[in-house]
Amino acid sequence: MFVNKVEVLNMARAMAVHASARQGVIARNVANADTPGYRARDLTSFADVWDSQGTALRTTRAGHVGGTAQASVGLMPDRLHASPNGNSVSLEAEMVKAAETRQAHDMALAIYSSLSGNIRATLGRR
Q1: Closest CA to 50 of 61, 65, 72, 67
Q2: Count of C-beta atoms within a 10 Å radius of residue 88
Q3: How many C-beta atoms surround the C-beta of residue 89 within 10 A?
Q4: Is 96 a residue whose pLDDT tops 90?
Q5: How far is the C-alpha of 11 from the C-alpha of 46, rounded, in Å?
């Protein structure tokens, strides 16, 4: 059981690092929102990065983390169409991505905090 908690702690750490890196990419996109010819960038999703390391995310039901059921997703602005100056940054889309990234970072910190508290309690250190 302790090994599973260490695996989850590793995943929470990786999730926090990914969220931090994505927030940097989003900030760079926003900073270049008026730069002619700039193309918006984004990172590969955390689930894809984690899967590429050989550790698949576990699902608990259909539709959870890329399962077979379709989840309802709001439409994002079409990033293929650039503005007349060739810039493809949509500030609205970047703000949505920033909010999603903050949620992912907060979730990683909550998981880490909860599990490290459990491990300390198991070892008798509060």
Answers
A1: 65
A2: 19
A3: 21
A4: yes
A5: 10
Q: Please spell the DSSP secondary structure of 107-124, one letter per residue.
A: HHHHHHHHHHHHHHHHHT
Per-residue pLDDT tens digits for 28-79: 999 998 889 888 888 888 888 877 776 555 666 666 555 443 333 333 444 5
Write down the domain spans for the chain: 2-50+82-123
Question: Which residue is it, tokens 């439409």?
Answer: 75
Q: Which amino acid is at 15?
A: M
Angle at 110 between CA 40 and CA 121, to 5 degrees: 155
pTM for this model (two decimals): 0.69
Contact 26, 97 (CB under 8 A): yes
Give CA 29 to chain center in angstroms.
Answer: 16
Residues 110 and 118: their CA atoms lie apart, in Å, by 12
Give the Cα separation of 106 and 64 in Å (integer): 19
Q: Are 18 and 69 in contact (CB under 8 A)?
A: no
From the DSSP assignment, how many helices (H) and strands (E) are in the chain? 3, 0
